[in-house]
Amino acid sequence: MNDMSNRRIAPYIFITPWVLGFLIFRVYPFVNSFRLSFMRYRLMSTNNRFIGLDNYVRMLTDDPVFSKSFWATIKYVILTVPLVLVFSLFIAFILNFKLKGVNFFRTAYYIPSILGGNVAIVTLWKFLFETRGLVNQIITNLGGQQVRWYTDPNLAMLVMSLLRSWQFGSTMVIFLAALQNVPRSLYEAGAIDGATKFRMFFAITIPIITPVILFNFVMRTINAFQEFNSSYLITQGRPNYSTYLLNVYIYETAFRRNLNMGYAAALSWVLFLLIMILTMSVFRSSKYWVHYSD
Amino acid sequence: MELRTKRKINSFFRYIILILVGLIMLYPLMWLFTATFKGNHEIFTSAGLLPQEGFGDWSAWKRAWNFNTGYTFLHHFTNSLRYLVPRTFFTVVSSVITAYAVSRFSFKGKRIVFALIIGTLLMPSVIFTIPMYLFYNALGWINSYYPLWVEAMFATNSFFVFMLIQFFRTIPRELDEASIVDGCNTLQTLIYILVPVLKPIVITVAVLTFMWGMNDYLGPLIYITRMSRLPLSVALRTAIDAESTADYGKVYAMSFMALIPALTIFAFAQRYFIDGVATTGSKG
Question: What Rg value do the Cα atoms of chain A yield, rounded?
């Protein structure tokens, strides 16, 4: 075989695994989950059949758990995404200081993220906020009152969000790379004009890194909507389903409670649409606030 | 003189901030480690790090080695490796080949392929879970490790493919052309010329695949229910639940044990994934 025909055929051979994977693991389940969402489909049932929009109607009219977990999810995303973004940008900012040993801190700060959703970390987090846990011990040592983190819906949600904010590593690293790429000449120009550090941060740094803010914002939002571990392992949805995230509801409907795959598929489609609508509107809005330099 | 003093004060405050944040980041982990040397009473009364009795008492660790699941830590860790090793290997191979095709060749439909790779990057995985479960169930693969690694053979992780495409773009094409002049075919060019250049990013992909797999809980939770086959993540949870709250030292020691594989890899490979993530984007 000569080189030319090799170069002509080779890409099709190389791309074949991806094409197969895309069809089997992406297109097929996508179509099938849509189909399932219109079915009464239980594992090991012989009575699986199409029921039209019944799953969706039931969700909206006859399922108090759905609306609770829907709002819990929205609340979690609204609380977590800005918290993670602000925190990781702040950390990236201080890691951008020209100081000796700053690389050591960069590595150290990354450790909680690399342990990610590890059950051990989630469990540790749960213990930290228990009534007699480390956080309350520190609070009482400082003269404060014990806090019952898991009985108040807002506080329980906050515990879940704080876990994600503590694991800001990858978001922070991307911010850091962006901050290092801001041209120094702009700051010098700003300094000549007599701008304060504070003013320069908001008038120079932030506008320049808006594309990266958009990217992190979208990725964090998609991830936050699909959060599972903290709701399932830390709060178990307590109190009264107020921290019961949709992803947990989907899991329990499909694999625990009654193996109701059809209803779970419908729930996952609602979550999917929610994510898509939000992602799209963020992209749409981006032309008003994202600045591309080239 | 005045400026220098001002600068010194400035950097002093910066170190203070760095150390304070560092404490918030690492204190819980250090506390978890030292708590394994404390009794229940001490765990609940002292927020300090140093255990009263020092670090001599490893009995919690000995109790923790048996995971309350009827199996040891090592057994469950081996279970994790049984799908993480093939998953890591195949993810690397399939992603590199896909990225190679997209970044180095022109072929019909290439633009669509690239658009779909980006599109699936933004697709939430939740939508695929239930049909894939039914699919694997029909194949009789529930309670096997296949569902946890078979996908890896088909470059389904768009994040890695995208990351590799970005890296391919930084390698001059002259390198490929020279190797073709030397008589390499396209596959040989990839293996002998490009992969050595890509080594840092290949290691990054391997390490991240392994780490995320190690930390994954929902995946194995769905597919593996048989106690003897539980991987570390699910086994840890099961063990903690079985322990209830009688023996905190043991629970903490089990937890810390479960973190050791990830911490070890981090110690050896940290520069790879901090740099790797910075080049393209985020996850995890």
Answer: 24
Chain B residues touching residue A118 (CB < 8 angstroms): 214-215, 217, 233, 258-259, 262
User: What phi and psi values does residue A39 have, to the nearest 5 degrees?
Assistant: -120, 155
CA distance linking residue B58 with residue A260, whole number of Å: 46
CATH of the domain at B248: 1.10.3720.10
Answer whether residue B197 is part of any domain.
yes
Residue B197 has phi, psi (to 5 degrees) of -70, -35
* Tokens describing residue A269: 């489609």
- The verdict on a CB contact (< 8 Å) between B282 and A119 is no
Instruction: Classify residue B273 as exposed, middle or buried by CB count within 10 Å of its CB (0-12, 13-18, 19+).
Output: buried
Q: Is the dihedral of CA A28, A74, A134, A92 positive or negative?
A: positive
Does residue B130 belong to any structural domain of this protein? yes
Check: CB of residue B261 under 8 Å from CB of residue B84: no
Q: Which domain holds residue B93?
A: 65-279
Q: Distance between CA A174 and CA B279 in Å, rounded?
A: 8
Q: Report the chain B residue with the minimal C-alpha distance to residue A132.
A: B44
B21–chain A Cβ distance below 8 A for any pair? yes
Place of tokens 């709002």: A71
- Looking at the structure of chain B, the number of domains it has is 1
Is there a domain that residue B284 lies in?
no
Dihedral angle sign, alpha carbons of residues B220, B222, B223, B229: positive
As a whole number, the mean pLDDT across chain A is: 91
Indicate the domain borders of chain A.
64-288
What ipTM score was computed for the predicted complex, to two decimals?
A: 0.90
CATH number of A64-288: 1.10.3720.10
Residues paired with residue B66 on neighbouring β-strands, in sequence order: B72
Residue B225: phi and psi, rounded to 5, are: -120, -20
Residue B232: name the closest of B33, B78, B42, B28 by CA. Answer: B78
Residue B104 located in a structural domain: yes
pLDDT digits (tens, 9 = 90+) for A162-215: 999 998 878 888 898 899 888 888 888 988 988 888 888 899 999 999 999 999
Phi-psi region of A241 (alpha: psi -120 to 50; beta: other; left: phi over 0): left
From chain B residues 160-199, the ones with a CB under 8 A of any chain A CB are: 161, 180, 185-187
CB contact under 8 A, B217 and A174: no
* Backbone φ and ψ of A144, nearest 5°: -90, 180
What is the per-residue pLDDT across B61-81, written as a single tens digit (0 to 9) for each?
A: 999 999 888 999 999 999 999
Residue of chain B whose Cα is closest to the Cα of A107:
B270
- How many angstroms separate the CA atoms of A224 and B186, rounded? 41
- Report the distance separating Cα B189 and Cα B50, nearest Å: 56
Q: What is the full DSSP assignment across A141-171?
A: HTT-----TTTSHHHHHHHHHHHHHH--HHH
